[in-house]
Amino acid sequence: MKLYSTNNPSSRVSFKDAVFNSMPQDKGLYMPVEIPRLQQEFLDNLDKYTLPEIAFTVAQHLLAGAIPDGDLKTLIDDAINFDAPIVELEENVYVLELFHGPSLAFKDFGARFMSRVMAYFLEEGEKQLDVLVATSGDTGSAVALGFLGVPNTRVTILYPKGKVSGIQEQQLTTNGQNIRALEVEGTFDDCQALVKQAFTDAELNEKFRLTSANSINIARLVPQTFYYFNAYAQLLRQGKKKVVFAVPSGNFGNIGAGLLAWKMGLPVEQFLAATNANDTVPEFLKTGVYQPKATVATLSNAMDVSSPSNWVRIADLFKSDTEALKELITGYSYDDEVTLKGVVKIFSDYKYVACPHTAIAWTALKDWLAKQNDAELAGVFLSTAHPCKFPDVFPEQIGKAVVIPEQVKALGDKPKQATGLKADFDAFKQYLLTH
Ligand SMILES: *Cc1c(COP(=O)(O)O)cnc(C)c1O
């Protein structure tokens, strides 16, 4: 597999280099030179395969030999060891549950695959890989649990004190082993600024082999294509062939992976890009003007992004054909009031509890379906996280209906291990050098 930078289409790097660099020097993003179309035979018979089998075939084609078949299969069976079921809530409306991994969010797909790819490429005797990650909640827990126990790696998580939910904090701080948590007196932006500065610090780079685990890493994008194919496989089993996906979007990695799956031949009628009040992309799709505003805080805080980092990739997929892009993707943006209304309606209609991000995708799907007249269309909205991760959002009656998964209950018994840190680079650097 060869990749180029979106800022320099004639550049070429290997998959291994793209994974360890994360971002090209020229600040573009890595994209595969070849996006192979899967065989029609395979696509037509997806319903005959399991998720790990689908994942293997998709990765095998995309990675094109970057990891030999036997190793790739072992790696995928280890990384993708949980389910991604679709659940029918009403006729032709399905939720794709992506929260059955260890951190209870879809980011487990990316984090688990990436950690294992990195461990695979680390050669024996090589310097330990130090992963630095700033988080507002979900990324940090997926990365922590993804790298937990992975040999020759160490993860340092920076999270803003008092600004993540109770369960998120437990997921970040109770791991031990090769995972350590820094509780920063500041905001998520402060955490991110500390990490960014560390990457440009000569002394730290001399001493450590630093890498970031953020959502632009190509090794996080690849495994997110798997569950789109697998959702389609499940629809085929129900006799459905026409699908629209509604995707709750922040940095646009999730929907970007869906578009990559579409490029590889997955037949998708339409993608709905559903955002909260941070509506840069829906506005662009409507007006043609791409104009990020200041980020606003919302109930769906994992999507509080006004400059989506993966948008460059999506634009690159369509080159300059904005019309084709607008034909395939419809944008929707909703404020907190509508988000909460969605949460309440989903509960009253289906007795189902959806996290606020998921509720935004459901609202977009319902709005879109209301304008269609095609009984064969199946709508699938992606549920990106388990509702127990966002307990403060729900009215009391709905909150009581949230079933806490067993693995979360077990976290409560483990001691919190976190080091307090001022939002100050010298203090952060000192910590890294002395611990
Ligand atoms: C990260 C996240 C999103 C946004 O996904 P992107 O790939 O950044 O668009 C949505 N919902 C939840 C729960 C998340 O954790």
TrEMBL record:
<dbReference type="InterPro" id="IPR051166">
    <property type="entry name" value="Threonine_Synthase"/>
</dbReference>
<feature type="domain" description="Tryptophan synthase beta chain-like PALP">
    <location>
        <begin position="88"/>
        <end position="369"/>
    </location>
</feature>
<keyword id="KW-0663">Pyridoxal phosphate</keyword>
<dbReference type="InterPro" id="IPR036052">
    <property type="entry name" value="TrpB-like_PALP_sf"/>
</dbReference>
<dbReference type="GO" id="GO:0004795">
    <property type="term" value="F:threonine synthase activity"/>
</dbReference>
<dbReference type="GO" id="GO:0009088">
    <property type="term" value="P:threonine biosynthetic process"/>
</dbReference>
<dbReference type="Pfam" id="PF00291">
    <property type="entry name" value="PALP"/>
</dbReference>
<comment type="similarity">
    <text>Belongs to the threonine synthase family.</text>
</comment>
<keyword id="KW-0791">Threonine biosynthesis</keyword>
<feature type="domain" description="Threonine synthase N-terminal">
    <location>
        <begin position="4"/>
        <end position="79"/>
    </location>
</feature>
<protein>
    <recommendedName>
        <fullName>Threonine synthase</fullName>
        <ecNumber>4.2.3.1</ecNumber>
    </recommendedName>
</protein>
<dbReference type="InterPro" id="IPR004450">
    <property type="entry name" value="Thr_synthase-like"/>
</dbReference>
<keyword id="KW-0456">Lyase</keyword>
<dbReference type="InterPro" id="IPR001926">
    <property type="entry name" value="TrpB-like_PALP"/>
</dbReference>
<dbReference type="GO" id="GO:0030170">
    <property type="term" value="F:pyridoxal phosphate binding"/>
</dbReference>
<feature type="modified residue" description="N6-(pyridoxal phosphate)lysine">
    <location>
        <position position="107"/>
    </location>
</feature>
<dbReference type="InterPro" id="IPR037158">
    <property type="entry name" value="Thr_synth_N_sf"/>
</dbReference>
<keyword id="KW-0028">Amino-acid biosynthesis</keyword>
<dbReference type="InterPro" id="IPR000634">
    <property type="entry name" value="Ser/Thr_deHydtase_PyrdxlP-BS"/>
</dbReference>
<dbReference type="InterPro" id="IPR029144">
    <property type="entry name" value="Thr_synth_N"/>
</dbReference>
<dbReference type="Pfam" id="PF14821">
    <property type="entry name" value="Thr_synth_N"/>
</dbReference>
<comment type="pathway">
    <text>Amino-acid biosynthesis; L-threonine biosynthesis; L-threonine from L-aspartate: step 5/5.</text>
</comment>
